[in-house]
Design brief:
This protein has eight helices and eight strands, in the order H-H-E-H-E-H-E-E-H-E-H-H-H-E-E-E. The chain is of the alpha/beta class and 199 residues long. Helix 5 links the parallel strand 4 and strand 5. The structure holds S-adenosylmethionine.
Length: 199
């Protein structure tokens, strides 16, 4: 599901970029099972592309592909990053439940607040598991169902409300698809952060 105008403003601004770079990326770094420097990375639901920058600069990716369901978000990412990473980053409009890529292609997949926007989020997990190499890592930051159903979230944002997940549901769905969740998950301001490794 695409963002409504409120969440578009909340997500796409310099303050949020600062927070992603200085807080969220640090938490994920601490949780990594191993470095994926020099590897291939896929950013699912890339928004305006901050994670593409982070994948290159912070995590040392050799190549990054990225997609988002919303053409406007992909346009924002192209405009922001085009000159810097244009030749390296394959960017497309697409759906995480149908990733048009062969199996076992990526060393890491980033889900930076995306799967809770997807009605069939388990299909997205299945696709992510399919495109990861054995030993590859899913880095996730997610919003639990109880937060999505809270009055202020429902007032401000648009999300699918059926069959949302709590951390344990998300971890179970990962395990069912061969993604082993590292025990060192982290909760921060009600969001949950973690890493799952493809068996
Ligand atoms: C909360 S935003 C996060 C964007 C970006 N990852 C960030 O942290 O700035 C969620 C993003 O997921 C995208 N999205 C929603 N459903 C999607 C789907 N099925 N496949 C890919 N992207 C999707 C939205 O368009 C939006 O850009």
């Amino acid at each position: 599901m695409k963002l409504n105008w409120v969440e578009t403003l909340v997500v796409n601004n310099p303050l949020r970029r600062w927070h992603q770079v200085h807080v969220e990326a640090r938490i994920l770094e601490d949780l990594l099972a191993k470095s994926f420097a020099g590897g291939r990375v896929l950013v699912a639901g890339c928004g305006r592309g901050v994670e593409i920058e982070l994948a290159f600069r912070r995590f040392g990716a050799a190549s990054v592909d990225a997609f988002d369901l919303d053409p406007k978000q992909v346009r924002r990412a192209r405009q922001r990053l085009g000159h810097r990473f244009g030749v390296q980053a394959g960017l497309w409009v697409g759906d995480a439940t149908r990733i048009p890529v062969r199996a076992a292609r990526y060393d890491a997949v980033l889900d930076w607040g995306v799967l809770h926007h997807i009605a069939d989020w388990k299909a997205a997990i299945r696709e992510i598991a399919r495109v990861l190499v054995v030993g590859g890592q899913l880095l996730f930051i997610e919003v639990p169902g109880h937060k999505i159903r809270s009055p202020h979230y429902r007032l401000l944002f648009d999300h699918p409300l059926e069959e949302r997940f709590e951390p344990a549901d998300f971890h179970r769905a990962c395990e069912e698809r061969g993604l082993e969740v590292d025990g060192r998950t982290r909760s921060y301001f009600g969001f949950f952060f973690g890493v799952a490794v493809r068996r």
